[in-house]
Amino acid sequence: MRPDIARRTSPPEPREAWPPLPLEAWKETRDTLHMWTQIIGKIRLKLTPRVNHWWEVPFYLTSRGLTTSPIPYGDGAFDATFDFIDHALILQTSEGRTERLALRPQSVADFYRDVMGTLRGLGIDVRIWTVPSEVAEPIRFEEDRQHASYDAASAHRFWRVLLRVDLILKEFRARFTGKASPVHFFWGGFDLATTRFSGRRAPIREGADVITREGYSHEVSSCGFWAGSGSLTGPAFFSYAAPEPPGFKDAPIRPAQALYSAEFNNFLLMYEGVRSAADPRALVLEFLESTYEAAATLGRWDRENLERTPPP
């Protein structure tokens, strides 16, 4: 057998189309993986030219995991990929060099040390701000020994869910002819999302931080998938409008099990209800369409010139 075929892969598990993903079962792994992705994300942020709405920083789904896509460095580029089949962080350069770091139980501090040392070995010298973003009570990467869990099966299941969601979000995005973001994995919030734009600037948010001001400089209807955190004790699909038009939170939304969260200012559709549905894809698309329609109609978007009628 060829050596590259004989690589270690994830242990076999039932190929359930929409696997269970209870947050309490993998929270420690989720929290550790969140910090690992932030380290790689901040490297990309430091080296990549600024794009509107922070579109230069997210990751993208691949057939094996999550990737940065090429990051410029000097006269070349490199990329970083979290492989959730072989469970490795793969660092590749445009000069043909490749390094692999095993994804295994280890602290954020150790992961940070190994990543930065490996990059230096590849001739990449980069310094990042080591304080995590968008989390409560952040711990600097080089000091974080609290988060040190990695369950390979849980990480693999999370990626499989993201892959299915990614395909649905891309189908939904294709129905819109106006400005729309790619389907992004944002390592700050640890969520997968796509955003539609009305084409109008949004009112300036007084007192907002730099991330929020840039992210919501224009009117949007955004949707995606979140693994859950804090009071949201399970994964969920979400949809929101910014700025939120009057009447949005009381709009009739489909399906019936969707609800508006005043805490998050989002409509939510819990993942557990989706995975047990007869047609999960149709249920998610119904949620995405109805919440967008509420945002666009109440917000007086020029829908005739922004939308493409989906094929039968």
Write the topology of this structure:
Blueprint: H1 23-47, E1 60-61, E2 65-67, E3 71-73, E4 76-83, E5 88-93, E6 98-102, H2 108-121, H3 152-173, E7 184-186, E8 191-201, H4 210-215, E9 218-226, E10 236-242, E11 259-261, E12 266-270, H5 271-275, H6 280-298
Antiparallel strand pairs: 1-2, 2-4, 3-4, 4-5, 5-6, 7-8, 8-9, 9-10, 10-12, 11-12
Helix pairs in contact: 1-2
Structure write-up:
The protein has 312 residues and is of the alpha+beta class. The chain is 29% helix and 21% strand. It has 6 helices and 12 strands. It has helices spanning 23-47, 108-121, 152-173, 210-215, 271-275, 280-298, and strands at 60-61, 65-67, 71-73, 76-83, 88-93, 98-102, 184-186, 191-201, 218-226, 236-242, 259-261, 266-270. Strands 1, 2, 3, 4, 5 and 6 form a 6-stranded antiparallel β-sheet that branches. A hairpin with a 4-residue loop joins strand 5 and strand 6 (98-102). Helix 1 (23-47) packs parallel to helix 2. The protein is globular, with a radius of gyration of 20 Å.
What is the gist of this entry?
The protein has six helices and twelve strands. By secondary structure, the chain is α+β, with helices and mostly antiparallel strands. The strands form two sheets. Strands 1, 2, 3, 4, 5 and 6 form a six-stranded antiparallel beta sheet that branches. It has a six-stranded antiparallel beta sheet with strand order 7-8-9-10-12-11.
Order of helices and strands: HEEEEEEHHEEHEEEEHH
Described by strand count, sense and barrel closure, the largest sheet is: 6 strands, antiparallel
Strand content: 15-25%
Gyration radius, in Å: 20 Å
In total, the number of strands is: 12
Helix content: 25-40%
Q: Please tally the helical runs, counting DSSP H or I stretches of 4 or more residues.
A: 6
The averaged pLDDT comes out at 93
